[in-house]
């Protein structure tokens, strides 16, 4: 599809810096197509970076719409398996690389799908946009709040299309769209409280240093994260995420470590807190234009358990999982709405208002306001109005956005506004105190130590290439 394209990243950023320009969302600087114009060829050419679990899933989804031209993964066994499987499925063998930058250097690739661990998301995404690629990136998008700001800036400056993989916005039998529409249509009156149940997670025994598995480039897997030894216990995980150690600091289990992820708080919070904020308009991207920023104002850790001792927000040992295993967080939202994020109770979202309450998750949507829809259904087109157009799968929405050069349903600004709540909840637990948040300035009020957690230092040699 592509004819590519672009001036060098360095030249592009120098030009932006010289003029002080910030391009509007949806504008296009680099690419073979002008903003708003149809693609020269309907068949996209894409590549996936990071192939375990979600990376493999989104590749399969993209194959319905695109040619899979290349893969990158630091685990040679996983890379080889996916190359061969995809070659058989699409009748054309994709190229395989250990270094994702070889994908970004190619001029025939239109978009990249990022399924790498969370600590890699921002570096790969920013460099992909600066190389002229549109991006689909798995959730949670960032490891820190400041990374979210950087991604937003580069989306604005390059005009690239960027979809975050919060699939509940599109998929799951439209239950979540129905929930958002019901709230926006006033079916529970004025919203008073929202409870997001996102499950907890277990701690770990002491995990010893051991040999790095054959085929895994451990140093490259760590990337921007601090240098450390590979740790694992021999017992293997079953089911989803199988084929890897049950306890480790790498594949699948990376979610349990501050250095690479945010535990259940950002893993499942990226789904349910997203729907909650969407329903009450607390992540509406149009807020940027009208200057009326509505967001969290206070985050209070009511109860929580960290599996290891922390000092000044950092774990004092490095041989056990360190993300919160259980928690109840209270978040003060706009218009007097109370949000509770908890590891207890049912996984899903409970909306409570002055005129009723209902519960939604991936298996059901229940409550009297739902039952009342039989006699008083939502207006025709209510779900489409919430969604912003024709209801599609999440990947189809991304492909459509590439063709229209408009941002998709899970845009980076909406995602980051709700993910800030999850990041702040983790910071509040690590520091064991309430945090007051300025949603306009996007900083913690009167707490320099807490603000130091809004960013992170990238390991030398793995800084973002700007």
TrEMBL record:
Its EC number is 3.2.1.49. It holds the Pfam family GFO_IDH_MocA_C2. Signal peptide: none annotated. Keywords: Glycosidase, Hydrolase. It comes from the Bacteria. InterPro entries: Gfo/Idh/MocA-like_OxRdtase_N, Gfo/Idh/MocA_oxidrdct_glycsds, Gfo/Idh/MocA_OxRdtase_bact_C, NAD(P)-bd_dom_sf, TAT_signal, TAT_signal_bac_arc. SUPFAM superfamilies: Glyceraldehyde-3-phosphate dehydrogenase-like, C-terminal domain (SSF55347), NAD(P)-binding Rossmann-fold domains (SSF51735). The keyword Hydrolase applies. One of its GO terms (molecular function) is nucleotide binding. Gene3D superfamilies: Dihydrodipicolinate Reductase, domain 2, NAD(P)-binding Rossmann-like Domain. Residues 206-281, 390-463 form the Gfo/Idh/MocA-like oxidoreductase bacterial type C-terminal domain. Residues 60-165 form the Gfo/Idh/MocA-like oxidoreductase N-terminal domain. The keyword Lipid metabolism does not apply. NCBIfam families: TAT_signal_seq. This is Alpha-N-acetylgalactosaminidase. It comes from Rubripirellula obstinata. The lineage of its organism: Bacteria, Pseudomonadati, Planctomycetota, Planctomycetia, Pirellulales. The gene is nagA.
């Amino acid at each position: 599809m592509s004819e590519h394209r672009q001036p060098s990243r360095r030249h592009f950023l120098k030009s932006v810096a010289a003029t002080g320009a910030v391009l509007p969302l949806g504008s296009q600087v680099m690419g073979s197509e002008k903003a708003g114009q149809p693609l020269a060829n309907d068949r996209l050419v894409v590549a996936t970076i990071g192939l375990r679990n979600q990376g493999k899933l989104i590749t399969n989804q993209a194959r319905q719409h695109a040619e899979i031209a290349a893969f990158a993964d630091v685990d040679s066994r996983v890379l080889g398996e996916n190359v061969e499987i995809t070659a058989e499925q699409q009748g054309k063998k994709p190229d395989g690389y250990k270094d994702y930058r070889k994908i970004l250097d190619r001029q025939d690739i239109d978009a990249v799908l990022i399924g790498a661990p969370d600590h890699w998301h921002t570096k790969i995404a920013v460099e992909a946009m600066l190389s002229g690629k549109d991006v689909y990136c798995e959730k949670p998008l960032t490891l820190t709040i400041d990374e979210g700001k950087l991604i937003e800036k580069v989306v604005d400056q390059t005009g690239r299309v960027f979809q975050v993989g919060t699939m509940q916005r599109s998929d799951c039998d439209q239950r979540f769209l129905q929930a958002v529409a019901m709230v926006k249509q006033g079916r529970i009156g004025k919203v008073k409280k929202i409870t997001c149940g996102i499950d907890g997670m277990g701690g770990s025994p002491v995990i010893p240093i051991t040999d790095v598995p054959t085929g895994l480039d451990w140093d490259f897997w760590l990337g921007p994260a601090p240098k450390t030894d590979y740790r694992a216990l021999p017992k293997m995980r079953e089911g989803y995420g199988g084929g890897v150690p049950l306890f480790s600091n790498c594949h699948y289990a990376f979610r349990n470590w501050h250095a690479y992820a945010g535990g259940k708080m950002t893993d499942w919070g990226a789904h349910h807190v997203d729907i909650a904020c969407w329903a009450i308009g607390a992540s509406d991207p149009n807020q940027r234009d009208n200057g009326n920023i509505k967001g969290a104002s206070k985050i209070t850790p009511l109860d929580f358990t960290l599996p290891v001792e922390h000092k000044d927000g950092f774990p004092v040992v490095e041989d056990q999982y360190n993300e919160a295993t259980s928690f109840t967080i209270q978040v003060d939202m706009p218009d007097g709405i109370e949000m509770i994020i908890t590891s207890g109770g049912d996984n899903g979202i409970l909306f409570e208002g002055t005129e009723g309450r209902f519960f939604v998750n991936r298996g059901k949507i229940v409550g009297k306001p739902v039952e009342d829809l039989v006699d008083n259904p939502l207006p025709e087109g209510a779900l489409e109005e919430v969604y912003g157009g024709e209801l599609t799968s999440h990947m189809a929405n991304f492909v459509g956005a590439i063709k229209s050069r408009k941002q998709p349903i899970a845009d980076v600004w909406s995602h980051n506004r709700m993910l800030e709540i999850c990041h702040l909840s983790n910071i509040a637990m690590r520091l064991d105190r309430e945090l007051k948040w300025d949603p306009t300035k996007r900083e913690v009020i009167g707490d320099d130590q807490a603000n130091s957690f809004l960013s992170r230092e990238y390991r030398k040699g793995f800084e973002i290439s700007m």
